[in-house]
Each structure stands twice: as C-alpha cells, then as structure tokens.
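Technical annex B. To support the medicinal chemistry partners, we prepared a structural model of the target in complex with zinc ion, based solely on the information shown next.
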Amino acid sequence: MDNLNYSLKKLSKQQLLEATLSLVKKEKACTLELIAHLEEIEDRRLYAELGYSSMFAYVTKYLNYSENEAQIRISSMRLSRSNPEIKNKISTGELSLTNVGLAAASIKRQENTKGEKLTSSEKSKIIETITNKSTRDAKIELEAIEGSITLKKQVYKIEISEKGLQMVNELKKTMGNYQDSELLELLLSEKIQSLQQQKQSEKKIEPEAVPSEMIMRDNKKPSRYIPKKVKEEVRTRAKSRCEYVSPITGLRCEEVHRLEYDHVIPFSFFGSNSASNLILSCPAHNKLRAINTFGKEKMDQYLKSSTLGEHSDRAAKCGCIDIDRKNL
Ligand SMILES: [Zn+2]
C-alpha cells in the first residue's frame, strides 16, 4: 500500500482523476459480477454444501460481509431475478446497491402489509421511483409508497423476559433483518404448520403400539411416522442442532431452528425410521440431501425457486423430502 501511495503521488491531477473514474467503473462491474456469482451459488446450493444453512450465513460467515452488507447483496441478487433491469441500472450508476437493498426491504414490507406478493411490474414501478435518487431521497420515496398502503395491522403488546429477548436477538442474527412483527408471524406460521402435521400423523397411529424400526401400517405399507422416543434419541444425539457436516470444509451446520428429521437411506428407498437412519437437518440441508439423492432435475420439479429456509410441501408430497419437523 505504501508503494501504491508513493506511485500515486507521481500522477498528474488529470491522471489521478481518470484513474479514479476507471476504478469506480471497475467497482460497479465487480458488484454486478458478485451478484451473478451469488445467484449461481444459490442456484447450486453451494452454501449448503459448505455447511451453511442459508445464503445469509454463507455471506456473513464465509465471505465475511457485515450483516447489513450481506442483506443488501442477497436481497439485490434476489430482486434482480424478477427484475433484471436492476443489473443494467447498477452498471450505469443509476441505482446504487444500497438503494436496491432499500427497495427490496420495502417490497417485503409492502407484501407483508398487503398479504400478497407484488407483481414484477409493480416492483418495476418502485425501482423506477428510486432510480437516480440519493439514498436519503430514495428512503423518502419508499416511505411515501408504504404510507399510501392501507394498513390492516393491529397493535399487539407483549412483555418478554430477558432470556426471551436474547433469543429474539439471536434469531434475528441468524435469519437476517426481520422486523419483530415479521419474525413473530414467521414463527407462528411455522409452529401452526408443524402442529397441524403432528396432529395428522398422530391421528393415524397409536404411539405406544409402534416399534422403532420399520413400521407397517395395516400390514400393508411402511409409515413415515417416527415415534416420539426415536425423535428424542436423535435430538439428544444432535444436541438439537443440524447434523450436516460439509465434506468440503468439515464445518458442521450451526442451525438450531426449523429442524427436520431426515432419513439417511430415504424412506422411499425403504430406509427405516430408526435413530441410526435419521439425522436432524435444517431445511437447506434436507433439500441438499434430497437433491444429492434424487438429482437436481427431479427436485427442480418440486422445489420452488430458492429462498432463505423455504420449505416445499410439494417436495414433501412427492416423497423426496421428509416433512417431520421438530417443534420450535
Ligand atoms: Zn443445516
């Protein structure tokens, strides 16, 4: 760096200005290239192969970006999938990465408020509004758009213990920048889904009458039902943490939320429901295992486009992914 500073001193004013301009162009090109690389990594689920439960964990822990920088890059990458014009605007300097990140966060909030996804053209209008705007002006524009949406929210006050608050903050760190209300809605919806699934499987079979090995229902076909005792055995062994270990980095996944019981030898390949054939797995590693077993082509028919921790019920129905989730 000292040598660089020394050589810069030798440049004329004009040369220094031109060199700086050239670096800015390179930086923008590099940003676009980075977004394209992140997109490909998400498509191939390479973050999961390295032992991370999400793109957010990979970008913060492996690439060492701050949480905010990671959130901006990931949300920009995802938004540019539905609205590729963003890439062009970044390359011409009409849009900064910060503004794209703001737009992505605003779109998410608007979708939560409306209770439905925005269309690509609705997103385009939002992007257009913040094009060629400073970050400060972009924030004002986005706030105005959000303010015009009729809020259907209710005020819900809760008291929380210090331990509870610590857990909320821990969860936010792992999952990214969610607002408290968004986080609560996400957890409630996961919990309700999990309880419904649990209720359905419990209805079908008497727990006490079930052996821990392959279970035959009506003496006809094997059941996916995993007895409570087996689940406890697996959970204790795994210390309530995803058991995936990356063959590339040797890193064990750190995810402790939204864990599922995953068959080592798949259920559809007559894998048993014994503890030795089950591992505790986060959604990302459950999907990775399914892709490695059944092939990407087949799984692409069932898995929706990648999002953080998204679970595909269609995939579960196809018998490729186990849907037995651990209660949060
Ligand atoms: Zn995992």
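Notes passed to the chemistry partners:
The chain has two domains: 13-147, 188-317.
Confidence is low (pLDDT under 50) at residues 204-218, 305-328.
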